[in-house]
Amino acid sequence: MTTTNTLKKAPFKADHVGSFLRPERLKKARLQKENGEITAEELRKIEDEEIIRLVESQKEAGLKVVTDGELRRKLWHFDFLSGFDGVEYIETEVGVEFKGVKRKASGIHVNDKIKFSTHYMIEDFKFLHSIAGDAVAKFAIPSPNMLLHRATFEDGVYTNNEELVNDLITAYQDVIQALYDEGCRYLQLDDTSWAAFLSEEGRESLKERGLDPETTVQLNARILNESISKRPDDLLVTMHICRGNFRSTYFSSGGYEEVSETIFGGLDVDGLFLEFDDERSGGFEPLRHVNRPDLSIVLGLITSKYGELESPESIKERIAEAAKYVPLEQLCLSPQCGFASTEEGNLLTEEQQWEKVRHVISIAEDVWQ
User: Fold this and answer.
1) How far is the C-alpha of 147 from the C-alpha of 152, rounded, in Å?
2) Which stretches make up the Cobalamin-independent methionine synthase MetE C-terminal/archaeal domain (predicted)?
3) Inter-residue contact 261 to 236 (CB < 8 Å)
4) How do residues 6-29 score in pLDDT, each as one tens digit?
5) How many CB atoms lie within 10 A of CB 314?
6) 119 — alpha (psi -120 to 50), left (phi > 0) or beta?
7) Pick from 262, 256, 276: which is nearest to 199 by CA?
């Protein structure tokens, strides 16, 4: 996949996954909306103002790519997925179990055929695009695999898996085209479903659900590749593979080796954002399966889970280690995940968040000067 000159440098050598801590003013406004103290229009106005402030902060920090911080979302994935026809946001009895903490119980339920007719988040992107100025506006959405792996299904809606998969792929092709039509040229797909393949525990969990890990890996790859197969040549698409990010905790561990040939040699994305911030992610050896000179590998070496800054020299050493497997010019640097995949956010302050962003930029400037 080739891109035009305007996006030749994206993913940028100093990039980021996209979500930022929710400002206290916004948290308060959301509670006021839930309590009936302000209207949806008043909340939207406050969201707009805080996103404008966030975009300016990203530029001031030195970023060339900006997002809306996902400030309008409660959750990084369910909020988007429930925007498709046939998919609804629901409260559930059990929340996802992270290490030492449990997230609020919620989910998505497919009650009719999945399709795209319109999507409310297109307006969210239009607003971001209108205020991005000379920065590249990146929009992050969940991978289509997240619906397949996280949704519950109404009996009788789909009588076979192939029909479901085809509808899901078509819905994503349509929403991607709609975002492109509104000016999106840098799209990021976030995906935690790959984490199930990275550890023995995760693979056993798949088997308990009646899923064969190898067959499911190939289905994941097919759904992703076909969902982006009709994208215009000047739309850059990256994918972020995550092991969980809720209040500075995680839900899975494991290196990339088990599925490295598929991830690094079988996906048609333009770049991969990869977690490499601690021992849970394994080593860089799986990068030996990168078989395309146009595939960018964004090393998530700076953690978003706590505020202490990593040693610049140790990060540079790790970049040099990764460069043994992938040419340095194909590598980039970012935090390993967003700062607030959910509205609660990770356990660091806003100032520490910006220190992390500036840390990424400073190190990248030294390495790729």
Assistant:
1) 9
2) 16-343
3) no
4) 334 679 999 999 999 999 999 999
5) 10
6) beta
7) 256
One-letter amino acid for residue 91 of the chain: E
Dig out the tokens for 302 from the structure.
Answer: 């700076």
Query: In the chain, what are the domain boundaries?
Result: 5-367
Taking each helix axis as running N to C, give the angle between helix 121-131 and helix 161-181, from 0 to 180 degrees, rounded to the nearest 10.
30
**Mean pLDDT, rounded, of the chain:** 90
Could you give the 3-state DSSP secondary structure of residue 227? helix
Structure-token match 């055929």, residue found? 113
pLDDT surpassing 70 at residue 94: no
Q: Is the peptide bond preceding residue 286 cis, with omega within 30 degrees of 0?
A: no
Position 232 pLDDT exceeds 90: yes
Pairing of strands 271-275, 236-241: parallel
CATH class for the domain made up of 5-367: alpha beta
- At 198, the pLDDT band (50, 70, 90 cuts) reads confident
CB-based contact 222:266 (threshold 8 Å)? no
Q: Which helix (H) or strand (E) holds 343?
A: none
* Strand duo 331-335 + 296-302: pairing: parallel
Kindly list the distances between the CA atom of residue 350 and the CA atoms of 49, 55, 138, 306, 339, in Å, as whole numbers in the listed order.
17, 14, 21, 11, 9
**Residue given tokens 């797909």 in the structure block:** 189
The span from the CA of 249 to the CA of 135, in Å, is 31
Which residue type does 139 have? F
Position of tokens 């979500």? 19
Token reading at 245: 């990010």
- How far, in whole angstroms, is CA 37 from its chain's centroid? 33
Q: From CA 296, how far away is CA 2, in angstroms rounded?
A: 12
Scored b (16 or more CB within 10 A) or e, 88-98 reads: beeeeeeebeb
Q: What type of residue sits at position 149? A: H
Centre a 10 Å sphere on the Cβ of residue 160 and count the other Cβ atoms it contains. Answer: 8
pTM higher than 0.85 for the full model? yes
Helix axes 312-322, 350-367, angle to 10 degrees: 50
State how far the Cα of 102 lies from the Cα of 94, in Å rounded to an integer: 9
> Which segment of 104-118, 196-210, 350-364 scores lowest on mean pLDDT?
196-210
Sign of CA dihedral 290, 295, 301, 304: negative
- Beta strands in 81-138, from DSSP E residues, in sequence order: 85-91, 97-98, 101-102, 106-115, 136-137
C-alpha 246/C-alpha 252 separation (Å) is 12
